[in-house]
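Dear support,

I submitted the protein below through the web form. The confirmation email said the job was done, but the results page showed an empty box. After a refresh the structure appeared. I'm attaching both so you can tell me whether what I see now is the final result or a partial one.
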Amino acid sequence: MEQTTTDMPLVLVAEDDESNFKLIRAIIGKRCRLEWGRTGQEVINLYHQHKDSARMILMDIKMPVMTGLEATAALRAEGCNLPIVVQTAYAFSSDRDKAIEVGANHVLVKPITLMELRKSVKQYIPAITW
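What the results page shows now:
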């Protein structure tokens, strides 16, 4: 039986760069529905719209208007308990520590690879098969 779009888990993606979003869509878009926010504030709005159906959030750190760290902290302050996987181009352990401090569950360092992204999604949405 083929999976329909509405059967697929919903992942909210906070990413200001269109090419990075397209990469994410190419890697997980056949198994997940994606809603895209280009700023931290947009992904908070998406969370409010989809909090009953979303399964996880992929959060870029460096975005305009509101950074991914600010958005993660705001979501946690609101009681959001979805897994939040932060994506960053910064590989320093202090950046990773800051992300975990504000409530991220996991940190991926860019450039994101197919295997790392799929492994991370599977960790938080175990029913997914690649």
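Response: this is the final, complete result; the empty box was a page-load delay. The mean pLDDT is 93.
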